[in-house]
């Protein structure tokens, strides 16, 4: 007999037909009602057990976490809370789960506890919903670009360059760390390493994606990226997934239009395609906030926040305007910002959140950042009125509750300007000779951006910590599993 998954079964007309279902026990109530879940959807299937048919020892083995195969009849449910249920004729215990030691009990566990049980946490309602959504979001992203004629490009994971120039890289080597081969002058001899040079895990696929765009016009990457920044926050991972579209003949305005349209599309997609999981997460937050002080609660529910983003244009402002707004703000005047607000200094999370959550109350795209603290590849702007220094055609998209979800720019396509910039920022030309050749042969304006996949997941699921939207998070001092 063929197994039926629970999701389709719940939408099947119950006519007493024989079915075979398999899944894990969530709860077993009154020696009679099994809540069975197979992960196909948020809902459990109710299995009704004629306990007179089984001995006590067998019934004891139907415990939370056990894997079962149940043959029975699909009938309309007598009880409230479900439309159909299965009257069990035969129960097979595929895998026992000793309730004395099984970590997941039918009660509320803390997020920290569940992180330590990451191999089991996907069996909870919350994490089941989160990881089904993660799939849907990834699928929506591919669909968006595919429908618009972009080509999915696989950029290297191991590279010799630092695309962001921030020096936050994990080294890749096969040399013996205790006794590496040395040159005559006593330095590590990287020539003897596997690739014959120093290599690291990529921080971004952008530079290679630019080569793709300068041939195929429209490409995107969707790949893991790695950053050895020692940031122990709810928004940083050492290994995260990034989506990086890159478009030839597009300027910074085209780039903003693309990013806004793309973000709205993927939000709309999950609202339309994952209503049950989204409704569950929405209720979860309401319950969590019930006992919180008003000022700690979200200004809007999860679903309302997502709909709000869909219905409003993102605010577009320059960095220079952002600084003016911040310096005129109450928290600035009352000295409540921890970090300085000064033209030439990067915006910190507290500033971004003020702009988005207090001032505009909607997503904001900030452009025209000072050249001094942005990456070398960003295009130098014409002198900007009111700006005391050079600015670049950068754009960061800031979301409520998250801060930066997208970072992007128009790229410097002028060879001489790019070389001067690299020299000033000490980016070695020998490493990026090929990148410079893209400007020597058929250069053209082009733009792109990077969306942090897990930051977007945090926004969509309303989870409070980025470690809870990736199955097995990598963070400082943590690479378990
Ligand atoms: O702003 P970033 O560093 O931009 C780039 O890497 C460019 N090469 C993108 C491009 O133009 N093609 O990173 C892009 C996004 C950020 O906006 C943020 O959402 C996410 O990646 N991000 C992280 N997400 C989780 N953990 C981290 N440590 C992250 N660092 C960046
Ligand atoms: Mg950034």
Describe this structure as you would to a colleague.
- This protein starts with 5 loop residues before the first helix and ends in a 20-residue tail after the last helix.
- The chain is built from 15 helices and 16 strands.
- The strands form 3 sheets. Strands 6-10-11-16-15-14-13-12 form an 8-stranded mixed β-sheet, sandwiched between helices. A 5-stranded mixed barrel has the order 1-2-3-5-4.
- The protein is α+β, with helices and mostly antiparallel strands.
- It has 2 domains: 6-106, Nucleic acid-binding proteins (OB fold (Dihydrolipoamide Acetyltransferase, E2P)); 123-168 and 203-468, Bira Bifunctional Protein, Domain 2 (BirA Bifunctional Protein, domain 2, 2-Layer Sandwich).
- The protein has helices spanning 6-9, 56-61, 111-116, 118-121, 125-147, 206-216, 252-273, 275-289, 302-311, 319-327, 330-333, 349-360, 415-424, 433-440, 453-461, and strands at 18-29, 33-37, 45-48, 67-76, 84-95, 151-152, 158-159, 171-172, 199-201, 218-226, 239-248, 315-318, 364-370, 391-399, 403-410, 446-452.
- Bound molecules: 4-amino-1,4-dioxobutan-2-aminium adenosine-5'-monophosphate and magnesium ion (MG).
- Residues 396, 404, 407 line the site of magnesium ion.
């Amino acid at each position: 007999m063929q197994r039926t998954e629970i999701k389709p079964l719940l939408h099947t007309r119950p006519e007493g037909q024989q079915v075979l279902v398999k899944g894990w026990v969530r709860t077993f109530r009154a020696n009679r009602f099994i809540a069975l879940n197979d992960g196909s959807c948020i809902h459990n299937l109710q299995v009704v057990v004629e306990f007179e048919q089984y001995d006590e020892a067998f019934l004891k083995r139907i415990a939370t976490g056990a894997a079962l195969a149940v043959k029975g009849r699909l009938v309309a449910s007598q009880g409230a809370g479900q439309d159909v249920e299965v009257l069990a004729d035969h129960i097979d215990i595929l895998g026992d789960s000793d309730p004395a030691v099984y970590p997941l009990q039918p009660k509320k566990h803390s997020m920290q506890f569940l992180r330590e049980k990451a191999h089991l946490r996907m069996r909870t309602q919350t994490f089941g919903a989160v990881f089904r959504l993660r799939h849907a979001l990834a699928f929506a992203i591919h669909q968006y670009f595919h429908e618009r004629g972009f080509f999915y490009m696989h950029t290297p994971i191991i590279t010799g360059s630092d695309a962001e120039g921030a020096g936050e890289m994990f080294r890749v080597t096969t040399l013996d760390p205790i006794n590496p081969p040395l040159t005559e002058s006593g330095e590590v001899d990287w020539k003897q390493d596997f690739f014959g040079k120093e290599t690291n895990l990529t921080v971004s696929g952008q530079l290679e994606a630019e080569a793709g765009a300068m041939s195929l016009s429209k490409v995107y990457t969707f790949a893991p990226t790695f950053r050895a920044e020692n940031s122990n926050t709810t928004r940083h991972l050492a290994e995260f997934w990034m989506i990086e579209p890159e478009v030839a003949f597009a300027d910074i305005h085209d780039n903003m239009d693309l990013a806004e349209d793309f973000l709205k599309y993927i939000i709309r997609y999950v609202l339309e395609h994952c209503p049950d999981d989204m409704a569950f997460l929405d209720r979860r937050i309401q319950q969590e906030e019930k006992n919180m002080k008003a000022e700690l609660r979200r200004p809007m529910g999860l679903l309302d926040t997502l709909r709000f983003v869909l219905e409003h244009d993102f605010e577009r402002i320059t960095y220079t305007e952002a600084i003016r707004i911040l310096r005129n703000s109450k928290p600035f005047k009352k000295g409540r910002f921890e970090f300085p607000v000064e033209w030439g200094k990067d915006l910190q999370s507290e500033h971004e959140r003020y702009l988005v959550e207090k001032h505009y109350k909607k997503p904001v795209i900030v452009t025209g950042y000072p050249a001094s603290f942005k990456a070398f590849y960003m295009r130098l702007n014409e002198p900007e009125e009111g700006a005391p220094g050079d600015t670049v055609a950068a754009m960061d998209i800031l979301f409520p509750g998250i801060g930066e979800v997208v970072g992007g720019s128009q790229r410097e396509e002028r060879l001489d300007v790019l070389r001067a910039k690299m020299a000033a920022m000490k980016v070695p030309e020998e490493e990026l000779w090929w990148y410079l050749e893209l400007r020597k042969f058929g250069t053209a304006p082009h733009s792109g951006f990077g969306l942090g996949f897990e930051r977007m997941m945090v926004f969509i699921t309303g989870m409070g910590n980025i470690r809870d939207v990736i199955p097995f998070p990598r963070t400082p001092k943590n690479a378990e599993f």
